[in-house]
Specification:
The chain is α+β, with helices and mostly antiparallel strands. It folds into 2 domains: about 80 residues, D-Maltodextrin-Binding Protein, domain 2, CATH 3.40.190; about 100 residues, Periplasmic binding protein-like II (D-Maltodextrin-Binding Protein, domain 2, 3-Layer(aba) Sandwich), CATH 3.40.190. It is about 30% helix and about 20% strand. It has a 5-stranded mixed β-sheet with strand order 8-5-9-4-10. It has a 3-stranded antiparallel β-sheet with strand order 1-11-2, with helices on one face. The chain has a two-stranded antiparallel ribbon with strand order 3-12.
Length: about 200
């Protein structure tokens, strides 16, 4: 992002919009997110249950301890009806933003890379796709709940503000959003990445 802002490169493709927005805001950068390409889904996994309905009062659930993915994990749990967050808190949600927790779940923040190792000690864990895959978990086959394709966490092409309508930028982004790319993602990644178009 710094190289992009400094005009060393014209685009990058490694992040989702909430991450880019926070990075840009923290550093005063003017960046723009093109329409999303794919989601590396965050999902809830368990070694003890097969359905979210099996989560009981007082169960412990681990989530990533970094602000972006922690908020993302809380949004996933809220989407399953396990808890309710303050209105309009969005992806910046933290444990302090939980306003309803009917099952009195114990939400434990853990370093993202260690989340798979918590599965034997807790009822369930919200794990990023990268760490799930490296632990032999498949988001499509093994997840109890998984982000939908309309998640705001789709990976995007980032460009400098004002460059988003340049023909070469539009061509790059449109090429990444073709039926051929969608078919490649579905076939090659087998659910570990989900097209967002």
């Amino acid at each position: 992002n710094l190289a992009l802002s400094d005009k060393e490169i014209d685009a990058n493709f490694f992040q989702h919009k909430p991450f880019m927005d926070k990075f840009a805001a923290d550093r005063g950068l003017k960046l723009h997110a093109m329409p999303g390409i794919f989601i590396a889904p965050i999902a809830l996994y368990s070694n003890k249950i097969k359905d979210v309905k099996e989560i009981k009062k007082g169960d412990r659930i681990t989530i990533p301890n970094d602000p972006t993915n922690g908020g993302r994990a809380l949004q996933l749990l809220a989407s399953a009806g396990l808890l309710k967050l303050k209105d309009n808190v969005g992806h910046s949600a933290s444990i302090e933003d939980i306003v309803e927790n009917p099952l009195k779940l114990k939400i434990i923040e853990v370093e993202a890379a260690t989340l798979p190792r918590t599965l034997d000690d807790v009822k369930a864990s919200v794990i990023n796709q990268t760490y799930a895959l490296s632990s032999g978990l498949n988001p499509v086959k093994d997840a109890i709940i998984i982000e939908s394709k309309d998640s705001p966490y789709a990976n995007i092409v980032a460009v400098r503000e004002g460059d988003q309508n340049k023909p070469e930028i539009l061509e790059l982004n449109n090429t990444l959003r073709t039926p051929e790319v969608k078919a490649f993602i579905l076939e090659h990644f087998k659910g570990s990445l989900i097209p967002s178009f």
